[in-house]
Amino acid sequence: MTTEIRWPEPYVTEALRAVRDTSPLVFGLTNYITAGLNANMVLAVGGSPAIGGNPAAVRPLATAAGGVWINLAAQVTDSPELLLDAARTAHAAGTRWVLDPVTVGAGISVSDDLAAELIGSVPPTAVRGNASEIIALAGGSATSRGVDATATAEDAVPYARRLATRTGSVIAISGPTDYVTDGEQVVAVPGGHRWLTRVTGAGCSLGALVAAFLAPGTDPLRATVAAHAVLAVAAERSALISRGTGTFAANVLDELTILSEGL
């Protein structure tokens, strides 16, 4: 059975309030193209982001942070060993962390191997990806076209449930309707807007938001659902007042800020 959750479901607003009130440190390893938008979305909901792959800073930040997100696209500047070090440090410290398996299933063996190593040795609290990435991560045959999915979110739900059961991680699938599962419960998060797919870094920023929502200690399934629901409503509201994707991206940040500060 699938449950549908939208803003302003009470536990979604409670999860956002927890981020705003605690302003958690959220540490991320991501790629330079999306880092600014990632950081600004975390700031908009009330978190305190730190981004970067300075080897000397990774262990202290992964230990001190309330939440960590690791985007495999960080490999454009950071080594796989550095990403593994961040995940292992977070795991050892009890820091909740999020994996964004960008390009898994696209034929890039280093990403496939790194994702398998991370999932197998230090399972993340949550995984957020598109349908093709989640299917591939679960051992299915779907392939992705670079960072774009070639499967639907609905196609990926059975794979996500199996992956969640195997790893103990919450698995989130992005699409026109997002799906989040802990292996037993499946939650659908409708909404958002098609322009999210035309803003570089919007999906990567969702991984950062999930880490921020996990940081205060909110139940992992609810925190992951809440992050998706908050971005969905911010995108819907932004689209109503935007002329195109440029103003849309800026207005999403405004709407996230208004949601957070209006609680």
Automatic annotation (TrEMBL):
<keyword id="KW-0784">Thiamine biosynthesis</keyword>
<feature type="binding site">
    <location>
        <position position="201"/>
    </location>
    <ligand>
        <name>substrate</name>
    </ligand>
</feature>
<keyword id="KW-0808">Transferase</keyword>
<comment type="pathway">
    <text>Cofactor biosynthesis; thiamine diphosphate biosynthesis; 4-methyl-5-(2-phosphoethyl)-thiazole from 5-(2-hydroxyethyl)-4-methylthiazole: step 1/1.</text>
</comment>
<feature type="binding site">
    <location>
        <position position="128"/>
    </location>
    <ligand>
        <name>ATP</name>
    </ligand>
</feature>
<comment type="similarity">
    <text>Belongs to the Thz kinase family.</text>
</comment>
<keyword id="KW-0460">Magnesium</keyword>
<keyword id="KW-0479">Metal-binding</keyword>
<dbReference type="InterPro" id="IPR000417">
    <property type="entry name" value="Hyethyz_kinase"/>
</dbReference>
<protein>
    <recommendedName>
        <fullName>Hydroxyethylthiazole kinase</fullName>
        <ecNumber>2.7.1.50</ecNumber>
    </recommendedName>
</protein>
<keyword id="KW-0067">ATP-binding</keyword>
<keyword id="KW-0547">Nucleotide-binding</keyword>
<feature type="binding site">
    <location>
        <position position="174"/>
    </location>
    <ligand>
        <name>ATP</name>
    </ligand>
</feature>
<dbReference type="InterPro" id="IPR029056">
    <property type="entry name" value="Ribokinase-like"/>
</dbReference>
<dbReference type="GO" id="GO:0004417">
    <property type="term" value="F:hydroxyethylthiazole kinase activity"/>
</dbReference>
<dbReference type="Pfam" id="PF02110">
    <property type="entry name" value="HK"/>
</dbReference>
<comment type="function">
    <text>Catalyzes the phosphorylation of the hydroxyl group of 4-methyl-5-beta-hydroxyethylthiazole (THZ).</text>
</comment>
<keyword id="KW-0418">Kinase</keyword>
